[in-house]
Structure formats: structure tokens, C-alpha cells
Amino acid sequence: MKSVIIGLSVLILCLPCVAEMSADWPEFRGPTAQGIALDATPPKTWGPEENIAWRTPLPGAGWSSPVLRNGAIYLTAAHLDDERNPTSLRAICVDAETGELRWDVEALSWSGRSKRQPKNGYASPTPIAADGRVYVHFGHMGTACLDTAGKVMWRQTGLPYNTPHGNGASPVLFDGKLIYSADDAEEPFIVALDADTGEVIWKTARITDANLKFSFCTPLIIEDEGRQLAVSPGSGFVGAYDIADGNEVWRVNYGEGFSVVPRPVLAHGLIYVANGFTRPCTLHAIRTGGRGDVTDSHVAWTITEGVPHTPSMLAVGVELYFISDKGKFSCVDARTGKVHWQEELDGNFSASLSWADGRIYATNEKGMTTVVNAGKEFAVLAQNGLGETTLASIAFSGSALFLRTEEALYRIEAR
Fold first, then answer.
1. Burial environment of residue 288 by CB neighbours within 10 A (0 to 12, 13 to 18, 19 or more)
2. Is the pTM of this model over 0.85?
3. Where are the domains of the chain?
């Protein structure tokens, strides 16, 4: 545990619900925003007939990952018409203990066509649950806030943008601001909404020379020399924005990288960023503390082999783990980029890596989760299949983990 805390020591306490790490998983990648479940003790083995506490079929279609707050699980889904266009964008609440569907509420309605990439959906961004509110985001189609009983508190539908492959970036919450990137194909921007009202506090254009400007990356909140920044990778560059006013504080350019998805990871004073669908796809380790364009001064190291286009990375102790969309699983020294091991796992991967109880969980798109020992020596502990497609990332709470498939939500716990 000590080594894990060292790896997280530079992450500031600006994350919702940090004080309840053992019980809650309130946003994409959990209370640390980096896939670390500090106090969880989930099982390492399961299957359709093993360690399944409950399985709840889910209405609608969606790939948002489950979040957990005060015994309730929140997800989103879309109801589709006969031509597979979204008609109703939903917020869903499931009882974490029993699996009972508590409510299924229309957060936003939608009419007309909406573009998406075949592997993506209309309800891919993950909600945030904090302070008696649930924030659900559907990209260019809008954002809404509900209370924990399912009552809609506000809607924001006045920020349309052109996204050729649908929506993927989840919002983040800090200091009363709901922040998300909207990497439009023509005029990308990042925006902060008032968490109480949904009104725009600031909106900042993201200036890039990339030919393809669309991306789908969830920002990471960090403290950098006394400022709270939202680090937001996009097409052609990663920018760090002052949360107070939205001004760009520093940037690193990486050329024609586009369709960036993996959420950044922070450890040892370095931000780890993948530059998306370009050749070669490159992982950049960037020193914090910069001002202005720091492309030439703050990139500590790079690596190109096995870098993910979709799954987010994982920093544990002095190791950095990542898995490519095609299943190349890597462990490198987080400080230098030295490769400890690279191994091949079966299947394609979209879900982000996560860590709990000394183990790393890697779920492929066919619903097979490989559990490996965290460390410099590669060791597979278990492979667990459910026989259902999944692109969503795992949520953890105490002795249980929660896994969303195309058909259902599972609570997995030693029985």
C-alpha cells in the first residue's frame, strides 16, 4: 500500500469524495481518477456461476462505466429508434446491495440523427456522483444534473459541436465547476459549467494545427505550482488549463495525433499522455511545472511500442502499466520509461486498467478479465469470462467489483 500512495503523492485532493475511497467510486476511474482502488478487496476469480452476487439487466444502450456513491450505482443509457438514432437519453440508478433498479429517468430528449463510431455509443461518457447530485453528460447532445431521487435539477443543451464519431469524454468536477473537453472536428474547446445551475462559467478555444481535430479525452485535475489545472489531451497537443478562468497555462505539441481517448495519469511529477490515432502512437511523460509551450523542455521520455489508443494507463508505485487496443500489455519504469515486460493478451481492449489489492484488472471487449500481479515480473493470476461484450471500465467498492456488459450490470463478490 505504501508504494501505491507514493505513486499518487503528487495528485492533489481536488477529487470528489476522496474521504470515502473504500466505499465509493464516484467518477470515471474512481476516487483518485486514475483507476486505483486503495482499500478494496475484490475477488480475483469469477464466472457466470462463480462469485456473482447479482446480475441486473439494463434498459437502453450505453457504454458509460458504473459509478458508486452511498450505496447507489449510476449509469447512463440511450433509447434508440428503428434506425438506431437516439430518442431518449437516460440516467439510471441501481441499488448496489440488491441490484434492484431504483429509477430510470429521461435526462435529455433528442430528435434527429447523431453521428457515432460503430464501437462507440450515445451514452459513453461516465457520470459523476457527488454532494447529493448526479451529473450526466452526452457530449454535443447536452448535459444534465439530477438529485439522488432522479429529479432533474438542470439541463444544458446550448453547447452543440460537430463530433464525427459520437461522444466519449467524461466530465470532471472541481470547485463547483463541471469541466469537459469538446474536441469538435472544426473548433475544439474546453468548458466549465456552474455545477449548481449548468450555466457556462468559462469556455476556452483549443488552438491546434492538427488536420483532424476531434478527440474524446477526459481531463485530469492536478495541482501544479499552486495552481489547480485541468490537463486535457486533444488532437495535436495536450493543454493544461487554469480551473479558475480557463486560461491555458502550458502545452506540449505532438503533431498530428488525433482521436485521443486515454485519460492522463499523474505520478512522480510526470503526466503520462498518449497522442491518439497517429503513427507511431506515442506515450509522452511530461514534467509538470511548465509555462507556455514546453514541448522542447518538459518531455522527460517517450515510448512508442504497445501504446494504447483507447484504454487509460495505470501508475502503481514506480511502475507504469498500459495495454494497447490489440492486447499488448506493458510494464515500464514510470520515471524513465525502461521496459520491464511486454506480454500479449487475447482479444481487443477498450476498458481502462485498474488496480486493487495488489492486482491489476484488464478486461477485453469480449468480457474476459485477466488479473495479473502488480510488479516487475509478469504473472497471470486468473482469467475470468462472462460471455458478454463490454467496453466499460470496472468500479470497485469494498469486497465487490461492478462490471457493465452490453446486456447487464454485475456485482461480483466472493460468495
1. buried
2. yes
3. 2-413
